[in-house]
Amino acid sequence: MVARRTFITGSATAGAVAVLGGAAYGAAATPDDTRSQTGHIRGATAVTEVFGDGQKLIAVAVEYDRDIDTSALTSSTFAVTDRTVTKVYANRAPRPAERGRDGRYVIVELSPDDTAAALWVTQQGAGGGASASPSPSAGASSGSGGGAPGGGGPKVGDSTPGGTIVAATASLVQKGTVTTTRGGRYAPDGTTLTTGDVVNLIVDDFEQHTFDDPATGQTLGYNLFVPRNYDPRRRYPLVLFMHDASVVNVATEGPLVQGLGAECWASEEDQARHEAFVLAPEYGSVVVDDDYEPSTLFDATANLVEAVTEKYSIDTDRRYTTGQSMGAMMSLGLNIKYPDLFAAAFIVAGQWPSDVAAPLAEKKLWIVVSQDDDKASSGENAITQVIADQGTKVGTAVWDGQSTAAQFAADVRNLEKQRAPVNYASFQTGTTVPSGSTTSAHMGTWRIAYTIPGIRDWIMRQSK
Q1: How far apart are CA 417 and CA 430, in angstroms?
Q2: In the prediction, which pLDDT does 152 show?
């Protein structure tokens, strides 16, 4: 099996396929010949995908020595420990597909709703959201707690990780006969297989780098997605995503696995519509809290954007910023302090002091909050009032956070019809937290906001 990159830190993935006995790999299977699976399996690969509430283990790809007949596979062909198998089919690559096709890999799809699926875990549990401390504050902007500015959440310089990345591993057993395209039959023998490699969908498309900023003396780890067909003779947009306080001081890839804020822009669908660079720093400590006095990592971020722009062919008229909670606050603050840096911003569940917000009237913004996220909602109400008082039109709408993709697409179109440079969408009270969930409306906001393609399309159409 081709080795695949694994980024999980702090917990090594399990070894190669377990207990395959002494039989030689590749023993020939002739038509109508039934043989044990032992010796015919080359390995097993865990496959992960990122959702709004974090990265999850969503499939296992089992590699055989011959092409497998996909039509002979059923969801009962394999059983995976502590997981719900939803679909089993063959493929030519170790990744899920819309439909099966004969190939050497058997894809065992797993329910993302399983508790054991979650690979991003916070103090609130699997996919718990953005608590960077035991309090319910999401650091730098709290939804259901935190009190007055500066109270209840992590402070600038706090480096306590609010989340953990769990190793992507799975154990499985072949329960039914697997048939090759030549008629060979590999019968189950009770052997337990353990994944030895990992494929992280979209996340693996990002590069990890380090930026040493001479101006501030700060060092920033960061993730960078470079368009697959990058041509230095062209100029490309760049999207900067800044994470919330729960991701401080975890692995560099933390901003990519905690939610969709960075990786949604790098999906095949988005890149087909808007080829762009995606930049996602990982902060070793909290950059800004509810006192609104950022650390030097704030200015280092602006310098990082300029450094990436100089290294690659980036269109300086089409640089964009987005972020959630702490990252949303940074996006607002950077737009005020560095007014020529970005063409537009997507602000998710954040706020900034309204008494210094007047420069935002010159910016193109799409703001999303939940009405029951008290601090972010009241903060954005105050900011948009300042913007309107400056004579800039603000488009407004109230959305149901439980809408379907089609309904959200219609919501975006309707808000765009107001033809405003600043769009402000708020989710109705009680619609951003799934039934039975312990998360807050604050955290629930970005689980939904980054799943709406129309907002990203609007951002990408803006230029200075």
Answers
A1: 26
A2: 57
Sheet bearing 236-242, strands edge to edge: 206-212, 219-225, 277-282, 236-242, 314-324, 344-348, 365-370, 422-427, 394-399
Q: Residue 297: which region, alpha, beta or left (left: phi > 0; alpha: psi -120 to 50)? A: alpha
Report the interhelical angle of 405-416 vs 453-460 (nearest 10°): 30
pTM of the model: 0.89
Q: How far is CA 97 from CA 88, 119, 221, 424, 434, in A?
A: 11, 22, 33, 37, 28
pLDDT of residue 34: 73
pLDDT at res. 134: 28
Among positive and negative, which fits the CA dihedral 271, 277, 283, 288?
negative
What's the pLDDT score for residue 439? Answer: 87
Q: In whole angstroms, what separates CA 283 from the centre of its chain?
A: 16
CATH architecture of 203-460: 3-Layer(aba) Sandwich (3.40)
Distance CA 381, CA 236 (A): 33
Cα–Cα dist 220/250, whole Å: 13
CA–CA distance, 42 with 104 (Å, rounded to integer): 10
CATH top-level class of 34-118+165-200: mainly beta
Cα separation of 74 and 345, whole Å?
Answer: 46
Residues of the chain with CATH 2.60.40.2180: 34-118+165-200
The residue count for the chain: 464
Judge whether 193 and 18 are in contact, CB under 8 Å. Answer: yes
Q: What's the pLDDT score for residue 109?
A: 98
Tell me what pLDDT residue 126 has. Answer: 52
As annotated, the residues of the chain forming the CATH 3.40.50.1820 domain(s) are 203-460
Residues of the chain with pLDDT under 70: 1-33, 123-152
